[in-house]
Specification:
Blueprint lengths: L7 H29 L4 H31 L5
Helix pairs in contact: 1-2
Length: 76
């Protein structure tokens, strides 16, 4: 069986994806807190914009990580 070849790029991309997902989780927690406070519509829209940005960032980082793993033939 041949060894799995990894590189520092694997670790960097994983760290980037992990941090992006943590930022999204923090945004979600903030949104849950906001909902409990009967927010104004402007606050809701600002939270929605931030959530959309954070989920997009997390998805992009995850896609880059998994694409890199495909280059190493770790995943199909």
């Amino acid at each position: 069986m041949s060894p799995i070849l990894l590189c520092y790029g694997c670790k960097d991309r994983l760290n980037t994806a992990t941090l992006a997902l943590r930022r999204h989780a923090a945004q979600m927690e903030s949104a849950f807190e906001l909902i409990r406070s009967s927010p104004a519509e402007q606050e809701v829209e600002a939270a929605r914009t931030e959530l959309l940005a954070s989920v997009s960032e997390a998805q992009t980082a995850w896609d880059e990580y998994t694409a890199h793993l495909r280059e190493h033939r770790i995943i199909g």
